Amino acid sequence: MASINAQSGIKKGKLIGIGVGPGDPELLTLKAHRLIESAPVISFIENPQGESQAKTIASASLNAKSLQIPVVINMNRDRLSANKAYDQAAIRIAEQLDQGRDVVFLCEGDPLFYGSYAYLLERLQCDYLCESVPGISSVFASASVLCQPLTRLKDSFAVLNGRNSDDALLQALNAHDSLVIMKAGQARPRILALLQQSGRIADAVYLEYIGRDNQRIVTDVATLENKEGAYFSLFVIVRKDAMT
Amino acid sequence: MASINAQSGIKKGKLIGIGVGPGDPELLTLKAHRLIESAPVISFIENPQGESQAKTIASASLNAKSLQIPVVINMNRDRLSANKAYDQAAIRIAEQLDQGRDVVFLCEGDPLFYGSYAYLLERLQCDYLCESVPGISSVFASASVLCQPLTRLKDSFAVLNGRNSDDALLQALNAHDSLVIMKAGQARPRILALLQQSGRIADAVYLEYIGRDNQRIVTDVATLENKEGAYFSLFVIVRKDAMT
C-alpha cells in the first residue's frame, strides 16, 4: 500500500468508516462527531429515493462544505446490482483519496458488524490507508432500551442474522444463554416457529427501529403478527432464569 | 416501582448506567458525555488502591461538583466480598435517589455486556427508575483497531468469556465463523491450546488494553507467550477464507 500517489506525488487521503449508531443522533461517539464535522468528503448508502438512514442519523454533525458521494443501492435488487454500485463508489472515492482528501464513509450501527463498509474495504484496502471508528450496535442499544443485562460472568452470547438456516438458528437457540437475531424482518415467521420449537419464546423480546421515532417493542412475542416485519428489527433472547 | 419517596414526598432520582467504552475517551457517546457532565452524583468501580478505569476514561467529562460514590472491589477476592461491596454501594446510591438526585454509574465498555451494572440493577431496579446508555464494547473497538470486518451477511458470531469450559469454547470455535473470547488473560494457555486443537490459530488475533497507552496487538498468535495475560485482553477469531 503506497501512501503517496505515484503520478501526482500527492500524499493520498485515507478512507475512514464511521459507525453512527442505530438511530439516536446522541449515540454518535465524540470521535465520530469530530471526524464527520471536519470531513472534506463524506459517502453513505442511499436508496433510489435519495434517502439515507446513516446520513439522517449523522445530520447534526454534517458540514455543508463536505463533498457528498452517495452510494445508491436498491436493497430489493440482487447482489450483482449492489456489487456494481460498490464498484462505482470505490472509483469515485479513490479519485478523492488520490487527490489527498480523506473520505468518511457513514455506517449505521458499527461499521464492521454486518455492515456495508466491508464491501468498500475489499475494494480499496490494498491501495489506500483505511481506518474504522466503532459505533453503537443495535445489539447494545436494544439491551439499553430494555435496561436488561445481555450477559453476566460465564454466559455465552451469540449474534445471528435472520438469513441463517433453521438449523443454525435452532442450534444457537439451544446452545447460548443469550442471543440476538438481527435483520429479523423477512424471517419473522420462521424465527417465531423456532422460538416455539426451542422453548425460548418467553425469553424473547422483539424490537424495531431502535431509538427512532417509529421505535416499537413487543415484550410478549407470542402476540407478534406471524408475518414479515421491518428490515431494522431484531429479537433479543435472554434466559429468564439466568436473570433471577 | 414508586417514583415518589413515600416518606418525604420527594420525586426519586433515577439510576443511569453509562458505558464509557474500552479506553479512548473520544469513544464516549455524545449522550454519555452530556449526562456525565451534568450528573449530581457519579459512581464507579474502584480497586483498593483507589484506581478506577471507568473514571479515568471519563475524566474529561467529569464535573468537579458531582458527588462521587466509589464502589471498592478487589477483583482478586471472592464473590462474597464483591457482593458485600455491591450491597453497600446500593444503600449509598439509594440514599441519593431517595433525595431526588440522579446517579450515574460509569461502566467500561457497554453497561449491560459482562458489566457490573447488572449487580446494581438486581439490587435497585425494583424500587427505582433505572436507565442505561450503551457504550462501545471492546469487541467492536478491537475490530476497528484491526480494521477487520467481524461479520458479513450470513456469518454467525459469538462472544464467550474466557471463564467458559473447554467444551463450551471448543464448540463455539467449531460452530461460528467469527468469535471473540473476552477476559482471556487468566485462561490464555487454555485458549491457545483450544485454538490449536480446533485448527483456528491462524484465524486469531490477540489484543490487550485497546485504545489505551499500553495497547498491545499480536497478529501471529502462535508466537504469544503461553502464560497468563492481562485482565483486559481478548482474542478476535475471524475465518480467513471468509474474508477473501
Quick overview:
By secondary structure, the first copy, chain A, is α/β, with parallel strands linked by helices.
Looking at this protein, list some descriptive labels.
homodimer; about 240 residues; alpha/beta; Cobalt-precorrin-4 Transmethylase, domain 1; Methyltransferase, Cobalt-precorrin-4 Transmethylase, Domain 2; 5-stranded parallel sheet; 5-stranded mixed sheet; 7 helices; 10 strands; elongated
Strand order of the largest sheet of chain A: 3-2-4-1-5
Report on the biggest sheet of chain A: 5 strands, parallel
Distance between the termini of chain A: 53 Å
Oligomer: homodimer
Average pLDDT of chain A, rounded to a whole number, is 92
Biggest interface between protein chains, with counts per chain? A-B, 57 and 57 residues
Could you state the order of secondary-structure elements of chain A as H and E? EHEHEHEHEHEHEHEEE
Q: What is the beta-strand fraction of chain A?
A: 15-25%
State the CATH architecture of the largest domain in chain A: 3-Layer(aba) Sandwich
Rg estimate of chain A, integer Å: 20 Å
Looking at the structure, the CATH topology of the largest domain in chain A is: Cobalt-precorrin-4 Transmethylase, domain 1
Number of folding domains of chain A? 2
Q: CATH-wise, what's the superfamily of the largest domain in chain A?
A: Tetrapyrrole methylase, N-terminal domain
Shape of chain A: elongated
* Total number of beta strands of chain A: 10
> Runs of chain A with pLDDT <50, length 5+?
none
Count of DSSP H/I helices of chain A: 7
